[in-house]
Amino acid sequence: MVENETSLKLKCLRSDNGGEYCDLEFKEFCCKAGIRREYTVPRTPQQNGVAERMNRTITERARSMRLHSGLPTQFWADAVNTAVYLINRGPSVPLKEGLPEEVWSCKAVKFSHLKVFGCSAYVRIDAGS
């Protein structure tokens, strides 16, 4: 995504030793793309503290939204995606309270479309359609 939307090239990817990052297909992809890989020591999440904390924040927000909505666990992925969407549109201390989405896209963020997660929604079908 970084390379598709900017002129920047990903140089290094740091990850834990999770299976999704250690398979041959991913290794070959990184090699062909010229991406250097770094692995943290197993069972030491503190080596990747910022990412681990963000994972926790996303999980806590998604859990809170799903429980508050009363939706079943099948909506977990939707809750996670919504949590990330909202985090990217909220103030960020490293960005001096700027919004990550505005910094990334160079466009003002609009909030008028936001609704409560899990609220009732209706599809409008025009008669001419």
Descriptive account of the structure:
By secondary structure, this protein is mostly helical. It has two domains: 1-43, no CATH class; 47-117, no CATH class. Helices cover 44% and strands 6% of the residues. It contains six helices and two strands, in the order αβααβααα. It has a two-stranded parallel ribbon. The longest helix is centred in the middle third of the chain and has 21 residues, at 49-69. The relative contact order is 0.09. The model has no long low-confidence stretch (mean pLDDT 91). This is Integrase catalytic domain-containing protein. It comes from Platanthera zijinensis. InterPro entries: Integrase_cat-core, Retrotran_Ty1/copia-like, RNaseH-like_sf, RNaseH_sf. GO terms for molecular function: nucleic acid binding. Residues 1-108 form the Integrase catalytic domain.
Short key terms for the protein model shown above:
two-stranded parallel ribbon, 44% helix, 2 domains, 129 residues, extended, mainly alpha, nucleic acid binding
Strand order of the largest sheet: 1-2
**Counted beta strands:** 2
Give Rg in angstroms.
19 Å
Strand content: 5-15%
- How confident overall, as mean pLDDT? 91
Largest sheet: 2 strands, parallel
Distance between the termini: 35 Å
Class from secondary-structure proportions: mainly alpha
Number of domains: 2
Low-confidence stretches: none
Shape: extended
Question: Tally the helices: what do you get?
Answer: 6
H/E element string? HEHHEHHH
Give the % helix.
40-55%
InterPro entries: Integrase_cat-core, Retrotran_Ty1/copia-like, RNaseH-like_sf, RNaseH_sf
GO molecular function, one term: nucleic acid binding
GO biological process, one term: DNA integration
Domain Integrase catalytic: 1-108
